[in-house]
Amino acid sequence: MAAAKLAVAPSSPTKRLRACMPPVAATSTTHVTLRLSSNLQHKPAATTVAVPTAALAPADGRSDVLAAACSWQEVHGADDWRGLVEPLHPLLRAELVRYGELVAACYRAFDLDPRSKRYLNCKHGKKQILRAVGMADAGYEVTRYIYAAPDVTLPMGICRPCSKSRWIGYVAVASDKEARRLGRRDILVSFRGTVTCSEWLANFMSTLAPARFDPADPRPNVRVESGFLSLYTSDNEAGKFTTGSCRNQLLSEISRLIADHKHEDISITLAGHSMGSSLALLLGYDLAELGMNRGLHGGAIIPITVFSFGGPRVGNLEFKNRCDELGVKVLRVANANDPVTKMPGILFNEAARVLGGRYEMPWSKACYAHVGVEVALDFFKAGDVACVHDLEVYINQLLNFPKDAVATASPAKRGEDEMMSGMLKSVFESWRWQIAVIRTGEWLRTLGI
């Protein structure tokens, strides 16, 4: 596999958002594939509200064509993104970049200085965060910070337990001006990915556990990864900035915002990178299972959309089917070379449930399954393995897939890149098999073998 040379120039979020406004419909250089889940049953009808294209559509007279072709409901998955993914529709690409930047704001604002009083928390106040990270014109007002702490214990004293609440993201709502532009009041929740040691440990707690979000109907067969569930539901009464679980913080704030804007058209958009994608999906399922998106006094259903960047699998097939049934729309942007998108469930996944297309295997209930529709990218940079999971690179790839960079490389350079590509591929394959052996041992213990 030839290595694509990434042309990632440093730029401000605002410049990159403008750069994603395409002059024409999606071009052939955008490498995407469409993979629809096999049980997409819920298809809420899109209303006639068109996407305002003043800021997203090109200024060359084509905005009326784009507006007629796509409503905001379609861009947010009302018809499961049919016809919008391949080729990637310019309005959908603009939305992906926009929400990707709002997730990247979490990383830019995260304090990694051990000497700081806000170490492993946000460096800025709610009113300053978007301006401080260069996104003053994003059109959102941050209303609450979200903190999470997994209930985990590190084995064999590798390092001391680290289960204090850490800043994981924020809740924001579209300003009046932005709501007029978007055609609805958008409630946004943005999650960062894994940083702390306890979060890393939670990522590897691959045992499936019942979600049981609705006390009236616990649905024990709907199971999710226990580490993500712990991060989402664990309480921490001694938090420095807040108390209560990540889940309770989120449900309380979203409920408040829905009530505040009950007479408006509302959308709920959940966006995250890596582990943050898992939290976004758990929240989307939770809101829908509890019926919090049904509006007050029997009002219209509020659409829930998850934009996932480099996200892992979260639950089993029953979880995926239930998300589809509830109408939770999920669009996953995934790099084919990103190992995180293959986990958990390297061995026990969608492909391992049925033998020969007919016989259900005994471990089928323990198999993981991805949810939703995938926008598949394919990139890596020789000498920089970490780039395959980097959110900034994901965003730049959405802006411009670097196909021309490979075509213009010299023969000698292409040969060098191909050799490095083969070496990296071998490393990844070896690493995947090691993880697979670990997972196999876990499942054998689970099955009592």
From TrEMBL:
Record-annotated Fungal lipase-type domain positions: 189-346
Keyword hit for Hydrolase: yes
Main location, first listed in the record: plastid
Free-text function comment from the UniProt entry: Phospholipase that releases free fatty acids from phospholipids. Catalyzes the initial step of jasmonate (JA) biosynthesis. Required for the biosynthesis of endogenous JA in seedling, inflorescence and spikelets. Not essential for JA biosynthesis after wounding. Mediates spikelet development and specification of empty-glume identity. Functions in a high temperature-dependent manner to maintain floral developmental robustness under heat stress conditions. Functions by safeguarding the expression of several floral identity genes, such as MADS1, MADS6 and G1.
Subcellular location: Plastid, Chloroplast
GO process annotations (BP): lipid catabolic process
EC number, as in UniProt: 3.1.1.32
Enzyme class: hydrolase
Name listed for the protein in its UniProt record: Phospholipase A1 EG1, chloroplastic/mitochondrial
